[in-house]
Design goal:
Structural class: alpha+beta
Helix content: 10-25%
Strand order of the largest sheet: 1-2
Shape: globular
Radius of gyration: 17 Å
Number of strands: 8
Largest sheet: 2 strands, parallel
Order of helices and strands: HHEHEHEEEEHEE
Strand content: 5-15%
């Protein structure tokens, strides 16, 4: 069922502009690659983290989608990572679980995106009124969260975060 497969929409968005390759992370970073996209998945194993970290430090761009699997790692889930297992490739620490907007048990309505900051990677892009968020993975509040926020919802909640590592 291709519409249910996580890579389906990512591939459709990128295919007109890029060559799409699939494979194991440790194999993909060995070949010339300008962007690596990882759809929602949980913990990366140590070999994957080491290979990705080395690749990112040398200038590779990693785009990770945070969804229920990645948000399942945290204090409330019982799957909290120890310091030796910490995911160093996340730009911010994520809260376990997610935030659901709209619906019978919610105090909030689904939210649109806020205008993009003029100095960020999305500068100059118009926010579509059709882009409404019903559910999101939340970042843990911290002193560095504002610096890592690349896009927000209308209520100021970060929806896209990032940080530079190495090159």
């Amino acid at each position: 069922q291709p519409l249910l497969a996580e890579p389906y929409f990512v591939e459709r968005a990128l295919r007109p502009f890029a060559e799409i390759r699939r494979g194991r992370i440790v194999d993909l970073v060995e070949a010339p690659l300008s962007l690596l996209v990882i759809t929602d998945r949980g913990r990366l194993d140590q070999a994957e983290q080491a290979a990705l970290l080395a690749w990112v430090e040398q200038g590779g761009v990693l785009l990770r989608f945070a969804g229920p699997r990645l948000a399942g790692i945290g204090p409330e889930s019982g799957l909290e990572l120890g310091p030796e297992e910490e995911d160093r490739l996340l730009p911010v620490q994520l809260r376990s679980g997610d935030r659901q907007l709209g619906g019978a048990l919610s105090w909030s309505e689904p939210l649109p995106l806020a205008p993009f900051p003029p100095d960020g990677p999305f500068a100059g892009l118009e926010v579509s009124e059709e882009a409404i968020v019903f559910r999101q993975v939340l970042a843990e509040p911290s002193s560095s969260l504002a610096d890592a926020t690349l896009a927000s919802l209308a209520d100021g909640t970060p929806i896209v975060t990032g940080r530079a590592i190495g090159e």
